[in-house]
Amino acid sequence: MDHEEEFLNVFFNHVSQLNFDKAKEIVERERESLRLAQGDPWAMLLAHLPQIAVAEKSYIDLGFLVTKNKGFLRKDNSLRSMYDILRGDFRRLEDVTRQSTGDRTIMTVASQLCQFLTARIELIDFYEKMHLMGTGKQMKYEELLVQIEDIVDKHALSFPHMVLTSIKAALSLECEILAHLLRAQLEMQLWRFLQSLMQLHGAHTRITAWERTLHSKDSWKLAPFLKSSQLPALFQWLLKLKAAFVSKFSLYFFTTLAQQTPLQEMKNLYSRQSSDYYHKIQSFQRRYDATAVMLVFDAHQLEDFAGPGYHHPQKPVEPLQDLDCYSIMFSYPVKAQSHMPNIVKVITERASELAAVDRVVFYFSPRDQNTYVMSSIDPRVTLVVVFDSKKAEKESYITNFVLDLSLQLRCNKVFANLKLNTK
């Protein structure tokens, strides 16, 4: 490894470990020690490197989501624009060094940094799209997964130079965390226990691996007791997203998990989660004397559906029909199976109303004297609150509880709060 490669390797290691001031400091020392002519390719590369450190520091603190006051004839100083300008600078450097055989390393690094900057711009667009969806009514998780997988596939073989290994590893971990979390959400929507668990575990291992790089020797000199609150905003947000999905997983698969863990231990574990859905449901049911609070799953047209829990992949699955297509995912305080005919009737007959995710549907059965209050959480999951007396829509405590719980389980707020994490 020659001097240039050794220097670049150290620089990008500092950047990947968030030692941005250290990265800029070694560039300044290198420029002062060599005093190269302004047109020298190495001098040109060194002139642009500090801007990478500045951009990456802003990126990891979600600086690309900070609202800029951009108006007519005013310069666009957004982070996305900064990356785009840097990409143009490195393209020009690549062109300058293309004709010189002695500047192969600089040309290659400049070319591959353009690829890295392109990936960053695509990720900025991706985060902005997630934030925008989060402020709306419905998250399109399939669309988001396709976009992040496209970024992963497009850049799988990009910027392979050894001096860029550290920043490529960090970017790959970031993309993989997002992909695993989005897949986990889609698997939960299909009530697949093992698949959801594996995706959450995949996200957890990669978050742990990325965090480990932040606890390098140099990082520890700067922050010997790095706490969660001191982690960069982007990393904190990914932790919050994972925590929100784990809380949702814990409720969706409560029955399966309860078969393996004592109830009191589960309650203790749930109380430490970002959202203790079990306690919220329990408190509401006890306070307002609801007959049951339930989650109901619709397995229509899912030919391979075998219910939650563990299943042998080669065991044949018999297709479900009629009422059997609807399963109780969760029910507190009791599994109110006798109410399922009425619940299925409402879900099927008032499907268009339930499809409006901000709508709460009330149905009173004169024969049974029961009221059913429902809201759609996911395309196949419906929240149902049952009362053994007539309840009116004007009783806001019911409507507010159903809307609030549905909204939390959709996890929109975590995506909407992306911008709230910015400084």
TrEMBL record:
- Keywords in alphabetical order, please: Lysosome, Membrane
A Pfam family this protein belongs to?
C12orf66_like
Q: Where in the cell is it found?
A: Lysosome membrane
What the entry lists under InterPro entries is as follows: C12orf66-like_central_sf, KICS_2
Any one GO BP annotation for this protein: cellular response to glucose starvation
Is Membrane there in the keyword field?
yes
Q: Does the keyword Membrane apply?
A: yes
Q: Where does it sit, as one GO cellular component term?
A: lysosomal membrane
Similarity field: Belongs to the KICS2 family.
Q: What is this protein called?
A: KICSTOR subunit 2
Q: Which organism is it from?
A: Gryllus longicercus
